[in-house]
């Protein structure tokens, strides 16, 4: 009964909000006409000698080049633009979807994530093992879980708090898209990533001495740059840029994948008043 | 299937003003709502909204990623609002004798008390909460689109909306708070 009443209240609330916002649609047609009439003459038309279809490609390329300029050297952009246009390169969307799929199938991963945040950023190192064991270290604070217990340890104060593990904790949220892929078996982010993202371009790059693929995509307004192993399609690196400011928001670098992680990485003991963390050798 | 914002931006840049008209249809109400937060009257919000779209059109070729037209436009609206607020502070005589409370009183010709309370309650929210409400309710309650414009996760959006609703309900229940 209470539930029904809540739903009814919510409907009224939503309806009132919808009604409130109707005010902003008033006079729309007239305002639209006024605006379109007042727009200045075309100012971005490409050279008259360029055909209509060609100019459309030109504008798209111009955007791609401008976006790339912020991140790479001119030569790399040139190569990237060529590779984007080359019919020889495989379907970037498919290559990228394969990479996401492969990442969701990994049994363990070790990576770092940095959030610059205007020079006051933080850097976290993370180990994750399916289904729910993880270890995260941020500036002397360690959080681990073996799936049964959660351990929060502050190396500076030497305080250890042990609690029952109840599913993935809020710390997983900071791991952004890549971390989200490991969140749980049922987590739908991998579907979200593949369904809601749009690949903007794909190019070959040299990453740490290896020939890799760089895929640039957008999702929910933000821009993502993925570096993938060209052959295996494993993700090596992800950069996320803000949709509004264009600034780097997070940078994930994968250090190891599918490597066995010892159980001791996920447990911190307290014996005789002493904290024993094998990773920190305490 | 509807044409993407990116395609409409590119068509506009080719000189297709109708494409810009379509972008206007998609975002004008939202931009007016954002502007209303500073003007506190619908006509002023409409004028400021037109200014936002004019600027957006002129600067459209500077948009780095056409797919981000929505968040870019909202960012531009917030800038225009900031300028408006600053100019209003400079030209205090424009509002001589009027303070925000009086402005609200002047609007009380609206017969629907519920809606008036709602307007007032929304104005009490912080900017981020207001923006989340505007985007959600002016994009046909499409969470995906709202997320894209606000640049936040789905859970973040719902959290923000829930917080905003709670505050509104509290305010409407007790307007003196």
Describe the protein in words.
The complex is a heterodimer of chains A (282) and B (177). Chain A is 32% helix and 32% strand. Chain A has 282 residues and is of the alpha+beta class. Chain A has two domains: 34 residues; 166 residues, Lipoprotein localisation LolA/LolB/LppX (outer membrane lipoprotein receptor (LolB), chain A), CATH 2.50.20. Chain A has an eleven-stranded antiparallel β-sheet. In chain A, strands 12-13 form a two-stranded antiparallel ribbon. In chain A, helix 3 crosses helix 4. In chain B, 73% of the residues lie in helices and 0% in strands. Chain B has two domains: 96 residues, RNA polymerase sigma factor, region 2, helix turn helix motif (Rna Polymerase Sigma Factor, Chain: A); 64 residues, Orthogonal Bundle (Arc Repressor Mutant, subunit A). With 177 residues, chain B is mostly helical. In chain B, helix 2 packs across helix 4. Chains A and B meet through helix 1, helix 2 and helix 3 of A and helix 2, helix 3, helix 4, helix 6 and helix 7 of B.
Query: How many H/I helices of chain A?
Result: 7
Low-confidence stretches of chain A: 1-7, 45-89, 173-177, 183-190
Shape call of chain A: extended
Looking at how many chains there are and whether they match, the oligomeric state comes to heterodimer
The CATH topology of the largest domain in chain B is Rna Polymerase Sigma Factor, Chain: A
> Using only CA atoms, what is the Rg of chain A?
25 Å
Top CATH class of the largest domain in chain B: Mainly Alpha
Mean pLDDT of chain A: 68
Shape of chain B: globular
Largest interface: A-B, 49 and 59 residues
């Amino acid at each position: 009964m209470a539930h029904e009443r809540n739903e009814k209240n919510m409907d009224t609330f939503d309806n009132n909000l919808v009604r409130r916002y109707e005010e902003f649609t008033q006079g729309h047609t007239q305002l639209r006409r006024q605006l379109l009439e007042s727009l200045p003459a075309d100012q971005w038309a490409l050279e008259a000698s360029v055909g209509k279809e060609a100019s459309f490609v030109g504008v798209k390329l111009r955007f791609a080049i401008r976006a790339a300029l912020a991140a790479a050297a001119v030569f790399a952009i040139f190569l990237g633009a060529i590779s984007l246009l080359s019919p020889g390169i495989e379907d970037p969307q498919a290559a990228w979807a394969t990479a996401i799929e492969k990442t969701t199938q990994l049994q363990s991963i070790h990576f770092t994530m940095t959030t610059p945040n205007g020079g006051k950023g933080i850097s976290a190192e993370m180990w994750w093992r399916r289904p729910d064991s993880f270890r995260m270290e941020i500036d002397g604070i360690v959080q681990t879980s073996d799936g049964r217990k959660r351990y929060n340890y502050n190396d500076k104060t030497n305080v250890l708090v042990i609690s029952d593990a109840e599913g993935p904790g809020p710390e997983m949220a900071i791991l952004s898209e890549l971390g989200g892929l490991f969140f749980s078996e049922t987590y739908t982010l991998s579907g979200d990533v593949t369904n809601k993202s749009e690949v903007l371009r794909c190019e070959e790059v040299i990453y740490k001495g290896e020939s890799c693929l760089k895929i640039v995509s957008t999702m929910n307004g933000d821009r993502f740059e993925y570096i993938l192993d060209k052959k295996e399609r494993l993700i090596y690196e992800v950069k996320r840029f803000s949709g509004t400011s264009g600034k780097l928001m997070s940078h994930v670098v994968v250090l190891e994948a599918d490597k066995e992680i010892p159980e001791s990485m996920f447990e911190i003991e307290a014996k005789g008043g002493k904290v024993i963390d094998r990773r920190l050798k305490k | 299937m509807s044409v993407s914002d990116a395609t409409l931006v590119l068509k506009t840049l080719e000189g297709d003003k109708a494409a810009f008209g379509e972008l206007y249809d998609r975002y004008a109400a939202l931009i007016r709502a954002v502007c209303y937060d500073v003007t506190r009257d619908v006509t002023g919000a409409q004028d400021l909204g037109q200014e936002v779209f004019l600027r957006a059109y002129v600067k459209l070729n500077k948009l780095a990623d056409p797919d981000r037209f929505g968040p870019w436009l909202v960012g531009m609206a917030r800038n225009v609002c900031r300028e408006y607020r600053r100019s209003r502070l400079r030209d205090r005589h424009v509002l001589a004798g009027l303070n925000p409370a009086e402005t609200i009183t002047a609007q009380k010709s609206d017969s629907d008390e519920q809606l008036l309370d709602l307007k007032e309650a929304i104005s009490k929210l912080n900017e981020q909460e207001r923006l989340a409400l505007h985007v959600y309710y002016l994009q046909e309650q499409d969470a995906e689109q709202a997320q894209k414009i606000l640049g936040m996760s789905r859970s973040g959006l719902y959290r923000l909306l829930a917080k905003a609703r709670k505050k509104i309900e509290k305010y409407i229940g007790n307007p003196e708070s």
